[in-house]
Amino acid sequence: MDFWSLSLECFQVFTTYEVLRPRQGIKDWVDVVRFKGGIPKHAFTIWIVNYDRIPMRSMLAAWRLPVSPTCPFCSTYDETRDQLLLSCDYKKDVWREVLLRCQPPSVMFTNWSEFLSWIRSSPSRKLMLLRKLAVQTVVFQFWKQRYNLIHNQASLPAATVFYGIEKELRNIISARKLRKHFNYLMAMWLR
C-alpha cells in the first residue's frame, strides 16, 4: 500500500469541515427568526434587525456620512433600532392595532429584548406563531416605509400601513391554512 492510498483512508471531509468552521452557541432569538411557515424576506430583515446591523441614520452619521441622525418619521429623536421600530409615535399607532390582535403586553416594551420576550411569552403555540408572523410582517413593512420616505419623499398614514400589514398577514395565513399550526390563526387575527 502506498502513501496516497493510506492518507486517503484516514482523511474525512466532515472532520476537516468541523475543524475549519467553529460553531457558536444558539442565539436566544433564533426561534423568532426561523420557523416553519415564515416568509424568507421577512426572516432576513428580522435577522439583520436582531444583530442591530440595519443601517440606521444615527449609525450612518457616526460613520461621518452627510446624513441627519434624526428619525425621518417624527424628527424628534435620533434614529436607532429601538426608536424606529418600537417607540416612534408614527409606529405606535400601527403597533397598537397589531397588538390588539396578539394579546398586548401589560406594559409596552421599550427595548428589543423586552420585545423578544413578549413574543415568546404567549400562552399557546398558535398565539406565538401569530405573534412571530405579525412581528416579522410589521418590521418588514416599517423598513419598507422608511425606505419609501427617505428615497421617494412619500409618507403613508399609519392606518394605510396597518391595512397593508393586515392584508399581507391574511394572505400569509390563507396560503398556509392547510398546515396543522395555521388552522385557527385567521380567526385569532380577525377578532
In short:
InterPro entries: RVT-Znf. With 191 residues, this protein is mainly alpha-helical.
Pick out its properties.
191 residues, mainly alpha, 11 helices, 0% strand
Describe the structure.
The protein has 191 residues and is mainly α. The chain has one domain. It has helices at 3-10, 13-20, 30-33, 40-50, 57-62, 81-87, 89-101, 112-120, 125-152, 158-175, 185-190. Helix 7 packs parallel to helix 10 (158-175). It starts with a helix and ends with a helix. The mean pLDDT is 87. Residues 11-95 form the Reverse transcriptase zinc-binding domain. InterPro entries: RVT-Znf (IPR026960).
What order do the helices and strands follow?
HHHHHHHHHHH
Total number of strands: 0
Shape field:
globular
- The total of helices stands at 11
Structural class: mainly alpha
What's the alpha carbon Rg, rounded to whole Å?
21 Å
Major β-sheet annotation: none
What is the number of domains?
Answer: 1
**Strand-residue fraction?**
under 5%
Distance between the termini: 74 Å
Mean pLDDT: 87
Poorly predicted segments: none
- Approximate helicity band: 55-70%
